[in-house]
Amino acid sequence: MTEPAHATLSPSGAERWSTCPASVQLEAGYPDSSSDYADEGTAAHAVAEMALREGKYATAYKGRRIPVRAGKTVEVTADMATEVQKYIDYVRDVAAGHELLLEQRLDISRWVPEAFGTSDAVILREDGELHVCDLKFGRGVKVDAEENKQMILYALGALDQFAVLMDFGRVRMTIHQPRLNHVSEWAITVDELRERGARLKEAADRAYLYVGSETPPVPSDFGPSEKACRFCKAKATCPALAQRVQDEIGSDFENLNAWAGSDEQKAMTLKALSPSTPEALGKAMQAIDLIEIWCKGVRGEVERRLLLGEPIEGWKLVKGRAGPRKWTSEQEAEDLLKSMRLKADEMYDKTVISPTMAEKLLKDTPRRWAKAQALITKSEGSPSVAPASDKRPALVIQPAADDFDDVTTSAGTTEGADLV
């Protein structure tokens, strides 16, 4: 979802300000900034919108440069087109036969003071379902639609705007992250949506008290957490987060300074900070994500200040390793190589189209699509650590000893011992 201007309490920051009202005041001193990743996401959204409006594939815009902000454009690469096409295919599929509205500016001020936003896609279904879709183009953390406060606010705005056209009874929210092959859907009734809206309105009213305020926040209005702190601009200098990290690590926090000392000091530091029992490991695991967010925040803030010319004792900026070589423009490079009469197999790294694109081409011919499906597979997900509250079932891991037959006899001897 793109936002041409920023609301004071933006829907994208709802997870932060709804649980940590004090962050509104702390963030006020930080400038809005962008990044190459954000610019790429802006361009990807523009390609998706154009393709959906014009009935084209994303590859039709390959080589085009998309304006993203003053003086900056981003070229549509083959990789971007391939990934955006996954989202385009999804929207076209779920919107087939229904009214599709793109880049709809939504007024959310009924729920959050002065708030607005622009929804990527809103689908009005004749069966009484309102469907709101959000494209996220990053490669970072997977985001689920269920209880997602940003999606709740956009759904509330869409419901307020389009309820005069149709009697909706159900709302579906979808977050599509093509680069992670992740599609998350969540559907609730309109009454359930409004209940959540009422709770968010109460939180927003509290957070709005800190807009333009110079009164120090009360301690109870700080709420450091993984979700709230991840994208907070003030996380590096937030006293509540620093205290939370210190509390989680324990009284040995100051011992981290010993890391610059002798090998013996380093070993003692690691021993003091390393949990050893299952109970201690479980408690430490709960804190890791939050601590990592704080660490990245501190590093980012030091870099930001050094880039502004502000000295940071003991640290400086140096030139990092150069990135891989790439064409300044894939389209211009393609034209140049063609003019040099290079053969097609010399110019291109050809790959077979994805199963998603194949389905688009073949699904109208069931027999052909059935043959193609026989060649489609998915790799099994690798085991990963998750909190016990995660809805996915726990893997049953057999201890290594269970992989071997018991070769001990009832008499306590070992069969085949005479072979040793």
CATH architecture heading of the domain at 11-220: Alpha-Beta Complex
Give me the count of strands.
7
The tally of helices reads: 14
Can you tell me the CATH topology of the domain at 11-220? Answer: Lambda Exonuclease, Chain A
In short:
39% of the residues lie in helices and 12% in strands. It is globular and about 65 Å long. It starts with 13 loop residues before the first helix and ends in a 47-residue tail after the last helix.
Task: Report what the structure shows.
Helix content is 39%, strand content 12%. By secondary structure, it is α+β, with helices and mostly antiparallel strands. Among the domains are: 11-220, Lambda Exonuclease, Chain A; 239-307, no CATH class. The strands form 2 sheets. The protein has a 5-stranded mixed beta sheet with strand order 3-4-5-6-7. Strands 1-2 form a two-stranded antiparallel ribbon. Helix 5 (149-162) packs across helix 6 (190-208) and helix 13 runs antiparallel to helix 14 (366-373). It is globular, with a radius of gyration of 27 Å.
